[in-house]
Amino acid sequence: MKILGIGIANKSNSGEILDVYFSNIEFGDIKVKNKDYEKKLSTQENIQLNWTIDDLEKPIQNVQEAYLKLHLLSHKFVLPNTINLEGLFSCLPNVAWTNKGPVSVDEIDEMLSQSKYRENDLYIKSLDKFPCLTDYIIPKKVRIADTSRVRLGAYLSEGTTVMHEGFVNFNAGTLGKAMIEGRISAGVIVGNNSDLGGGSSTMGTLSGGNNTKISIGENCLLGANSGIGISLGNNCIVEAGLYITAGTKVNILDDKNNLEDIFKARELSGKSNLLFLRDSLSGKVIAKKNKIKLSLNKELHKND
What is the pLDDT of residue 207? Predict the structure, then answer.
């Protein structure tokens, strides 16, 4: 299969490539086509990458390849965790992201000083290796209350709503309609009709030695300020304020609330129809059959 990326790179005054915007992409028979413009600045460079499907399995060698893979994720040509992103962090430079575009961190001081003595019109949004998604791609039928909290490389399906406290990292996202008021860490995917409450968190794989990919199934709810270090199957709920790590001891109750067994949470990873909560008297973490059917507000997720 043919994969073609055509775009433009911004460079520092020393010639370092800071970012690449791929305006036109062909992924087999699927195309993203935007109007071509002639480059105007000496610090810009035309970029064209001609790939096959095998290139998706290769480690990233440079900034151009990194940005094409991030574009492919956010255009939803490929699912999170299905392409090789090895080398991503080592290839991407740390950049000052400003209202005037990307600027090298070695050159931002002079540009900031000039702005202060002249128009005072320079705004620095962040110092980071990753830009925000909406500087490059506007996903269809998606709401993002604070665009700085969604990175390029996020995979957002139609009907997704990311509220002000929501965050979506690269190589992560939603597979259907979802309400995101919590954190979707790198590598985490969230199923259709699921809700991450305010301040909730999903354990990622970028630091701390964790290499287990976390996923949340369909019709799930993470309560406010809750968190998970295990995967959830379909139709699961985690009580507000409860953080479940892989080693958390979980008391399994039957339909009559009698103790059946005790497991470490990792042994329940990926299982469906579970309600996790903490006993308010004993403090023990409990899991029992979930009898609550979650339903998102349809009006909130039409996003037309």
Answer: 54
